[in-house]
Amino acid sequence: MSLFEIKTRSLLMASAVMLLPVGAEAQSTGGTGTAAVPPAASATESTDIGDIVVTAQRREQRGNDVGIAMNVVTGTELASAGVKQVNDLTALTTNVNIKNTLGNSVPNISIRGIGLNDYASNNNPAAGVYVDNVYLVSPAMLSFGLFDVDRVEILKGPQGDLYGRNTTAGAINIISRRPSATPSADFEVGYGSYRNWHVNGAVGGALTSTLNGRFAFVTDQQDSGWETNYVTGKRIGKIDRTAARLQLEWTPSAAFKARLSAHAGYDRSDEALYKAENNLTTTEDDPYLNKPRTAGSANNPHLDNKSFGASLTMDWNLDSNLTLTSISAYEHFRRIDVADQDGTGLRQLDSTFANKISEETQELRLAYSKDNLNLIGGVYYSHDTVSDRDSYLISDLFPSFGDTLGNTYHQKTEAYAGFLHGEWTFVPKLTLIAGLRYTHEHKVFDNVTTFFGSNGVYANAFPTASSTFSTSRVSGKIGLNYKPSDNTLIYGTVSRGVKSGGFQGQLTFDPTAIRPFRDETVTAYEVGIKSRVLPNLQINAAAFDYEYKDAQFYGPLFDSPLGTLFGIANAGNARVRGLEGDIRWRPTPGLDLRGGIGFIDTKITKSIVAGVAEGSRLPNAPKLTLNGSIRYGWTVSDQLRADITLSGVYQSRVAFDIVRNPPQAVEPGYFLGNAEAGVDLGDHFRVSVFGKNLFDKLYRTQALFTSIGWTYQYGAPRTFGVNLSYKM
What we know:
Blueprint: H1 3-16, E1 53-54, E2 61-62, E3 70-74, H2 75-80, E4 96-102, E5 105-111, E6 127-131, E7 134-135, E8 149-156, E9 170-176, E10 184-192, E11 196-206, E12 211-222, E13 227-229, E14 234-236, E15 239-253, E16 256-267, E17 275-277, E18 294-295, E19 302-303, E20 305-319, E21 322-340, E22 350-370, E23 373-393, E24 404-427, E25 430-454, E26 457-460, E27 465-485, E28 488-499, E29 520-534, E30 537-560, E31 563-588, E32 591-607, E33 624-635, E34 640-651, E35 654-655, E36 666-667, E37 670-681, E38 685-692, E39 700-706, E40 709-714, E41 719-727
Parallel strand pairs: 6-9, 13-18
Antiparallel strand pairs: 1-2, 3-8, 4-5, 6-7, 8-9, 10-11, 10-41, 11-12, 12-15, 13-14, 15-16, 16-20, 17-40, 19-21, 20-21, 21-22, 22-23, 23-24, 24-25, 25-26, 25-27, 27-28, 28-29, 29-30, 30-31, 31-32, 32-33, 33-34, 34-37, 35-36, 37-38, 38-41, 39-40
């Protein structure tokens, strides 16, 4: 190891054990947002880290006034950390684990050990993801790119009143930069390893005296990759991803505002290779067993995803204390995912997943605020459909079934909810928080069958079947906020979240297995503190205890003529206990220190399915997570300012699957180090260089058991790049 690497590793490890902050200095209120080009600090800059304004409770509040544990990452921080997708948020948060369940797609978001490890498109994530207040119904829809973002708010714990639907783990709010009357233009071009290049930008300003607009776009392209298909000799890792968003905000009077947002995008990237182990035929890939980034594929692994949607948000100020808000939205997503899950040139498990997902949502909220009382009440409706046809080429695996095996289904869901949330400061420094939500959900699961055959001639294993599921549940929270001073909040809450039941969307040969699994519930007890100890020092900490009942797990749970098949079912009960803390400190002008630590202890307390042992830890729940950064900026001259950032993230060992506690599904702990350095050229231009995974750590992001054995996905190796940014 070189002297440089030793010194760099020491700095990165030092930053990792600092406590990462919940907030940042941005004082965004959802307007034009922070700049994409982070300024370097000058010698005369204040050390005050300022306040951040969030909308976690559907109204603008200082982060220190909200009794919810959360991480807030500004758009500036996302850009400097190289965050391009939801998965990348893991490196900036504590007790949050986000990874793709299937190749390059279907992210699983686990917050404090609660998540959904299923890759079927018809099930809902345990952490609700909201883009500009619009809920995304399927985990298959979460592989979108993050661009022109004002901030991301990651709320931890059940959010059973204001959010409500399927938020046993928490919620992620992604807030775009909003149009304003001030002319603005931001652009960035970049180039990096594997011939990766990207262009993103946004322009906005006043179109008329009452109408503002903003247009943003991003394209991410890569010609090569860090995986090799030994069947063809081709490098795998091409990226072809583009998206755009148009927003129009109309304010004809002080009492009314309407914002129309429309977006569209596509992803035609390569699908990741599957590194297979213990498959039925091993002689072909014997020469590559010790090459984790080399695997086989008999097909052309790729994605062909398209999405578009629109939302209309209208706010009426009915009087000085009363506001009515309407949010109407439509989303459509089409997914084609072609992969070779056996990792060889054989036709053992070459898959094609084809989905169409559409959803319409409508929310009405009435907010009242006067003196010491704040109330928000409303109703919510959503309708979504999922159509699916999955197929597998199996001629070398199950030749008696032909060359193809697959399944189809169609699912329709309607959900209704009514909710009320209140905050009452009944005596000075003490505020009572209470919320209640009633939700009714009805699902129709039909056109369900498994088919097999050859040369396009298929037979059904059983006549198409159907089933229905309905649930009505009450969720909510109650809490108490105590503010001994304006800059310190001590809070305690009891909250309950519900994730609705549904149907497993995997292969089955038994029509009687097409029956719903039940709702899961999480009851959380939490205490925490948020304190601006000094103008330059913010400390936050929380302790929590969860009662997790009827937990929904995915795994090899079902028997069939082909052996064990995979699906989702209620596995039993669990408990989750943990601590987390974060800090931000600016000791001198130009020096910014951040860090976070999270600890969780999870345990299956009651198992009702074979193979899930009581006492097992939950999947995707590392016991310890650490992350942090050290940033220093200085003035070089009147026109030149420079900065350098070292950051790192560590997670302890994690199990990707706990069914039968397989050792192949356990990944040891690992540390990833990153760095960025930049120079601001005057007030408009910035040049920066970056490196990610600086020590070239080899680590797995997923382990999945299939009909041919274990398959693995690996994280990206060391990469470098350079960016040029412009801000008007």
